[in-house]
Recover the amino acids of this structure.
């Protein structure tokens, strides 16, 4: 087990810069998730750590060792690939034993380790099967088993759940979390799914355009997003955004609606008089009318989900989504009066898109 | 669907009055399948079944166009003649020897070429084109080029040997040297075909398997034997089937390089068939020889297909 650090890490293909100087310290035994949209450089960063991509600049350390020039086999890492990369002509046992055989581990030791890992993952009965005879979830477990038997310093997961259906994804996600709790090895996990990031990570690293947008615990990135991008990326349904101008401690939206920022929210408007801002409100932070700051708009669509209801309503030129109690069922076209928890209102600079509060 | 077709088959005799041709109007899947397959089956019969049947029939006849006599039924006479014919045994052995030398030779060279062509060059077309050129050349053209290469006075091979301090070889005066020259030419000509099939096989192996093997600690050689070779087996078997069948039919290259000489030491079974049917116009004996070659090719194909099935 080991810490990992990236210092000014860069990757370019010709003049195209994919990773633009990443600085990140990952502690021993930490579960860190790199998350971001396609093309943000998260997989490239992971592959550079694995040694599958050369680095264009900066430094990567695993423990105290600089591994910039080391081939993958000398980095003491194990990786679970997006397509699992199981050897199709080998049985599950042979797949799991391969790395140990290559390293000259004794046959008895190989058997013991595979038995232990298979028991942990519930794949003991599959050891003689070939990958083509396994379901997606079973393949995923075998890929994890292959990584576990190595007992590496760091586990790398490259979008390991993206080939599974939604139900299985939730199930395997729990297993990965349980696995981390059981073995405690440092894990670096890449995904584009913010739910995976939120549920699995000790810390989330949000990447955009090859740069780190924010690093923090799931609570930090959810409650205090550093930018519009982070606010919109983390949370489902996504955070609502509406442009407005700060006037006398209130936000005035382009349709003329007002959102007072007094009480707890008053401080947020300090020094922002006349400034153009973007207001961010999570759908779940709307409260019933009479509580919080009042806001109204015309209902466009109502989506009952059973556990709660999603109401889409117009506010000026923006459409906002509110997650409210299931019994609240306004009709489309109605004027909705709703409240907003003032302590949960996020303000972003309209020009820089960075958080103001 | 099975039920529908069974119903048709069972109910048809019961309705005694049903005319046979009404079956063709029955839209059941089995009838439809037969109707759709008929044109292809007819074409196949025309271009394969009929010529092969005719060949087998001719092999049981005394039919020599030089004698001016009408064809007579000879039974197994042509085949019995073959058993006592030393040229038949020599040319058959030469054919088998060429197959045993050039097929593995082309496989090894083709594998090396395919691995080279599969390297991540930025510009891929020069390697791909250089693979295609030998394959695209006509066999007889390749034979003529290499006959010049191996020419004792003006050939580039002897020139290089002499520059390196060796004595030149009179390639086509010795049975062994002539055989070696022919085999080298066939390997050069056919390894590009092997390479193309193996290259196609190589490109179906996902890159992530090599990456996983790298992370697992396997070096390049281990990756080749643990991943590349096992996953290439289907492509290799296909290439071997095609190459072995064409090797058993070797004709053009030895014909253009040596005409089978010195003597009949480099003649192949296909050349002997050609000599009997085209030069001597002995269609009965020539056909019997051709049937033997056909059976050899079929035998090899069956062995390879069984190998594939056993693997599956």
């Amino acid at each position: 087990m080991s810490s990992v650090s990236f210092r000014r890490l860069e990757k370019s293909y010709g003049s195209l810069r994919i990773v633009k100087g990443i600085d990140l310290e990952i502690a021993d035994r930490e579960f860190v998730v790199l998350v971001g949209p396609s093309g943000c450089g998260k997989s490239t960063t992971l592959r550079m750590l694995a040694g599958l991509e050369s680095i264009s600049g900066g430094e990567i350390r695993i423990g105290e060792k600089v591994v910039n020039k080391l081939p993958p086999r000398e980095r003491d890492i194990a990786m679970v690939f997006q397509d699992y990369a199981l050897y199709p002509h080998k049985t599950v046992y042979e797949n799991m034993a391969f790395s140990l055989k290559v390293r000259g581990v004794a046959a008895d030791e190989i058997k013991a380790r595979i038995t232990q890992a298979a028991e942990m993952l519930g794949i003991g009965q599959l050891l003689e099967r070939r990958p083509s005879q396994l379901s997606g979830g079973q393949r995923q477990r075998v890929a994890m088993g292959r990584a576990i038997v190595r007992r590496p310093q760091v586990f790398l997961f490259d979008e390991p759940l993206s080939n599974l259906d939604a139900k299985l994804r939730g199930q395997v996600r729990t297993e990965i979390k349980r696995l981390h709790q059981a073995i405690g090895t440092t894990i670096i996990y890449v995904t584009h799914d913010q739910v995976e990031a939120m549920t699995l990570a000790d810390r989330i690293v949000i990447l955009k355009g090859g740069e780190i947008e924010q690093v923090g615990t799931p609570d930090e990135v959810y409650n205090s997003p550093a930018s519009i991008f982070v606010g919109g990326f983390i949370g489902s349904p996504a955070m609502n955004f509406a442009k407005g101008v700060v006037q006398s401690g209130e936000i005035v939206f382009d349709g003329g609606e007002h959102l007072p920022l007094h009480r707890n929210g008053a401080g947020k408007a300090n020094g922002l008089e006349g400034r153009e801002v973007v207001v961010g409100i999570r759908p779940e932070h709307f409260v019933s009318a009479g509580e919080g700051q009042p806001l109204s708009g015309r209902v466009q669509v109502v989506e009952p989900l059973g556990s709660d209801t999603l109401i889409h309503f117009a506010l000026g030129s923006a459409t906002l989504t509110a997650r409210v109690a299931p019994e609240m069922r306004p009709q489309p076209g109605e004027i909705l009066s709703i409240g907003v928890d003032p302590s949960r209102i996020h303000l972003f600079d309209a020009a820089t898109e960075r958080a103001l509060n | 669907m099975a039920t529908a077709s069974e119903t048709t088959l069972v109910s048809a005799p019961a309705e005694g009055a049903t005319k046979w041709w009404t079956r063709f109007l029955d839209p059941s899947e089995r009838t439809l399948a037969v109707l759709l397959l008929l044109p292809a089956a007819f074409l196949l019969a025309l271009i394969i079944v009929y010529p092969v049947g005719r060949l087998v029939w001719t092999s049981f006849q005394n039919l020599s166009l030089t004698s001016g006599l009408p064809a007579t039924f000879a039974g197994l006479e042509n085949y019995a003649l073959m058993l006592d014919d030393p040229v038949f045994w020599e040319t058959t052995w030469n054919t088998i020897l060429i197959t045993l030398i050039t097929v593995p030779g082309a496989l090894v060279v083709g594998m090396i070429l395919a691995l080279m062509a599969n390297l991540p060059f930025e510009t891929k077309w020069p390697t791909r084109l250089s693979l295609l050129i030998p394959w695209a050349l006509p066999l007889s053209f390749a034979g003529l080029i290499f006959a010049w290469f191996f020419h004792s006075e003006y050939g580039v091979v002897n020139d290089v040997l002499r520059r390196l301090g060796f004595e030149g070889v009179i390639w086509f005066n010795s049975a062994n040297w002539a055989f070696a020259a022919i085999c080298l030419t066939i390997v050069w000509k056919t390894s590009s075909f092997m390479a193309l099939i193996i290259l196609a096989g190589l490109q179906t192996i996902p890159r992530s398997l090599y990456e996983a093997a790298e992370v697992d600690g396997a070096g390049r050689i281990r990756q080749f034997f643990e991943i590349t070779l096992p996953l290439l087996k289907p492509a290799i078997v296909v290439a071997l089937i095609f190459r072995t069948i064409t090797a058993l039919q070797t004709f053009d290259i030895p014909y253009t390089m040596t005409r089978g000489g010195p003597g009949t030491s480099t003649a192949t079974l296909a050349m002997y068939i050609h000599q009997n049917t085209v030069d001597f116009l002995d269609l009965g004996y020539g056909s019997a020889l051709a049937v033997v070659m056909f059976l050899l090719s079929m035998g090899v194909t069956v062995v390879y297909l069984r190998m594939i099935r056993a693997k599956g």
Q: What stands out?
A: Chain B touches chain A through 17 residues (CB under 8 Å).
